[in-house]
Specification:
Layout: E1 2-6, H1 11-23, E2 28-33, E3 51-55, H2 61-69, E4 73-76, H3 83-88, H4 91-111, E5 114-120, H5 145-164, E6 168-173, E7 176-177, H6 186-195, E8 201-203, E9 209-211, E10 213-214, H7 215-228, E11 234-237, E12 242-244, H8 245-255, E13 264-266, H9 281-287, H10 296-309, H11 311-327, E14 332-335
Parallel strand pairs: 1-2, 1-4, 2-3, 4-5, 5-6, 6-11, 7-10, 8-13
Antiparallel strand pairs: 9-12, 13-14
Helix pairs in contact: 1-7, 2-4, 4-5, 6-8
Bound molecules: nicotinamide-adenine-dinucleotide and 2'deoxy-thymidine-5'-diphospho-alpha-D-glucose.
């Protein structure tokens, strides 16, 4: 199979490309990535001589058409992915997540190429603590500019499938963790703060709940859907990993041998979603997928070890990321 992977220099995409090259010798991979602040070509160093890398924009219709004409399938990870950035500057989210997806859909339509669309559980909005988890039937109700643009892109995929017969599947996954995640995101931000002896930064009271899944489990699910998913269908991906943010910060502090209350409460995110939770029954029963990383604490320890061992990968982004948070108005509200 000849595969085009968009966003392959980002967190999930780079892990996907590495896993694919290591485990599937019958697949040839071309990566298309614009190398925005979130893309890092070094994330592909270990497989650089076994893939083709194209530096370019998914919204470039001619480039995308040419690349898509030469492959059997597209897995579309590329996106502006950080909620906080979408609150400060929404335009790149509209351009990449909506216009970029349009560009890919037109190309796969023209060349009749199989397409898998990577999306997020955030398109469903948020849940109260007692609500049942999201399913494929949950109505869309996005909260942030990021999740609204991801929801828009999902709807484009559904329309192109129904109206033009595009052979597409979609997956909406919960919060990923693991190696190669940008230091702007919650878990890597706190790990790298702790490596630097800085206190973790918890938004508001820290009662928001996220449903954590290891990135390798997400990517194995993507392969399962690409190979066996029903065309036109959406699959939810999650590993029953619900935890509130404060508990995650306390686990990280314990892993560093620190007092679990040694963190700061900082300004909350406007419109902050309370809880995400995934019911992945369809994926488990119809396609037989099961996660391999059942123990979040063990996965977190391995992730901490990766950031300790790979400081040269994240260090260049750390100071600028913290400066951006400060410039966006993040203030310390207090301690425990
Ligand atoms: P990321 O921000 O780490 O990586 C995004 C990648 O896309 C980067 O390499 C960047 O350079 C590239 N990119 C951005 N704009 C581009 C453009 N216009 N053209 C080409 N490349 C461009 O993101 P991530 O966390 O790896 O997320 C990947 C996908 O998974 C996204 O679609 C995201 O919505 C989805 N997702 C993420 C999570 C999560 O927890 N991180 C969970 C569910 C779904
Ligand atoms: O649910 C899937 C989504 O998960 C993906 O679609 C997004 O691309 C991905 O970024 C992630 O979105 P979140 O907003 O949930 O992730 P983030 O890492 O930004 O924050 C996780 C939680 O931690 C959230 O409740 C906000 C909180 N937080 C975040 C940061 C950066 C903190 O308390 N402190 C922080 O410093």
């Amino acid at each position: 199979m000849r595969l085009l992977v968009t966003g392959g220099a980002g967190f999930i995409g780079a892990n996907f490309v590495q896993q694919t090259v290591l485990e599937r010798s019958d697949v040839t991979v071309t990566v298309l990535d614009a190398l925005t602040y979130a893309g890092n070509k070094a994330s592909l160093d270990s497989v650089a001589d076994r893939i083709d890398f194209v530096h370019g924009d998914i919204a470039d219709l001619d480039l995308v058409d040419e690349l898509v004409s030469g492959v059997d399938a597209v897995v579309h990870f590329a996106a502006e992915s950080h909620n906080d950035n979408s609150l400060s500057e929404p335009w790149p989210f509209v351009q990449t997540n909506i216009v970029g997806t349009y560009s890919l859909l037109q190309a796969v339509r023209r060349h009749d190429v199989r397409y898998h669309h990577i999306s997020t559980d955030e398109v469903y909005g948020d849940l109260d603590v007692d609500d049942p988890a999201f399913t494929e039937a949950t109505p869309y109700n996005p909260s942030s500019p990021y999740s609204a643009t991801k929801a828009s892109s999902d709807l484009l995929v559904r329309a192109w499938t129904r109206s033009f017969g595009v052979r597409a599947t979609l997956s909406n996954c919960s919060n990923n963790y693991g190696p190669y995640q940008h230091v702007e995101k919650f878990i890597p931000r706190q790990i790298t703060n702790l490596i630097d002896g800085v206190r973790p930064r918890l938004y508001g009271a820290g009662h928001q709940i996220r449903d954590w899944i290891h990135v390798d489990d997400h990517n194995r699910a993507v392969w399962t859907i690409l190979e066996n998913g029903q065309i036109g269908r959406t699959y939810l991906i999650g590993a029953d990993g619900e935890l509130d943010n404060k508990s995650v910060v306390r686990m990280l502090l314990e892993a560093f041998g620190r007092d679990p209350d040694d963190f700061d409460h900082v300004t909350d995110r406007p419109g902050h979603d309370q809880r995400y939770a995934i019911d992945a029954s369809l994926l488990r029963t119809e396609l037989g997928w099961t996660p391999r990383y059942g123990d979040f604490r063990a996965g977190l320890d391995a992730t901490i070890a990766w950031y300790r061992d790979n400081e040269s990968w994240w260090r260049p982004d750390k100071a600028g990321t913290e400066r951006a948070y400060a410039q966006a108005g993040e203030r310390t509200l207090g301690t425990e």
